[in-house]
């Protein structure tokens, strides 16, 4: 603010007063008593006007501070009357009042907005004074959960239902805790947590309460639906190649029965095919047993497994169905004696999933091709890669493909890749993907 005019006038008044006082002293010293008396009256008058001049500014500031003290920001100071420095002071006060009213208006709007949000949530919230029990704020959800009307003090609950009062208000729940409370003659399960905070000298307690009975029932229903979806997906993925291999074996046997000389029976092929069906059936049975406990795979039966043997099993299992679709598949292991410490049944499930996805991705290509390559990296990690020259994965969904139940297929369930990821995490490994649209995709299993 600019007080130059005020300071200048005050300085001039002080100079005049000093000059008059010196004049009075001089007049009385020279014997001019009458002149000295007159000048003395002038000094008194001029001193009084100077006092009023200074006091007026302090009165204005005192009025403003009094308004601030009582939170009265509605007062308006006249900006077009009085001396220039007073008008300038008035403008400053008015600007402060405008700013504070704007801040108060925004705070009130935010408070109303916050209240509306808290009223809309289905989680009960209450805040009350720990010393007096007076309720600072509570929402409808809290009262509906406890089946209570609106109350201003928590002692109201104590008088009606002491046990409920002890469980909710007297017991501290620093961490979210599940408890059972009696409401409307029945027990309901709620999740409760609380915290204590200080506002000036008053301690307050904030309690958050959520009825989880309905949520648990909904989640249980959804879990059953998802479980059935997972089971269906994984069983179909395993049964399809088993059925195809069994059909191939049956065809060979029928040809041998019809014309044994032209189609001699290859016992080694028959034995290998039956053994593959048996192994895969055992893996599927183990998978089904794992889900029977309503949980995902959590336990591994680790064993040393030659990667070549793993690939031979997958090739024998998948080859017949791939031949029908004219899809070429290659398997390669470097070095040939590469070995993994894995749960072979679960890793077979992962490879089957990835190959089935690759088949789906490249089925419309003129020369569809799938490659499965295992190699050991210089850092000793073993990587199995499944390549295809299919349609690729769009970049906008690349980050979502491992999310459970996310799928871009019209007939997919969205659990195959999420299950692959979980199985790899159980093996302390990871699954990576690199894809380009219209060029192909490669999934990497890193052990």
H/E element sequence: HHHEEHHHEEEHHEHEEHEEHEE
Number of helices: 11
Query: Approximately how much helix is present in the residues?
Result: 40-55%
Low-confidence stretches: none
Please identify, by name, the CATH architecture of the largest domain: 2-Layer Sandwich
CATH superfamily of the largest domain: Histidine kinase-like ATPase, C-terminal domain
CATH topology of the largest domain: Heat Shock Protein 90
Biggest sheet character: 5 strands, antiparallel
Shape: elongated
Structural class: alpha+beta
The percent range for strand residues is 15-25%
Compute the number of strand runs.
12
Spatial strand order of the main sheet = 2-1-5-4-3
| Averaged pLDDT | 79
Radius of gyration: 44 Å
CATH C-level class of the largest domain: Alpha Beta
User: Could you say how many structural domains there are in total?
Assistant: 3
* CA distance, first residue to last residue: 72 Å
Question: How would you portray this structure in words?
Answer:
There is one protein chain. The chain is an alpha+beta fold and 447 residues long. The protein folds into three domains: 4-105, no CATH class; 121-211, Beta-Lactamase (2-Layer Sandwich); 217-446, Heat Shock Protein 90, CATH 3.30.565. The protein contains eleven helices and twelve strands. It has helices at 4-29, 33-69, 84-120, 140-146, 155-160, 162-170, 213-258, 267-292, 307-324, 344-362, 416-426; strands at 124-129, 135-138, 177-183, 186-199, 202-211, 303-306, 328-334, 339-342, 369-376, 382-388, 430-436, 440-446. It has a five-stranded antiparallel β-sheet with strand order 2-1-5-4-3. It has a five-stranded mixed β-sheet with strand order 7-9-10-12-11, covered by helices on one side. Helix 7 (213-258) crosses helix 9 (307-324) and helix 10 (344-362) runs antiparallel to helix 11 (416-426). It is elongated. The model has no long low-confidence stretch (mean pLDDT 79).
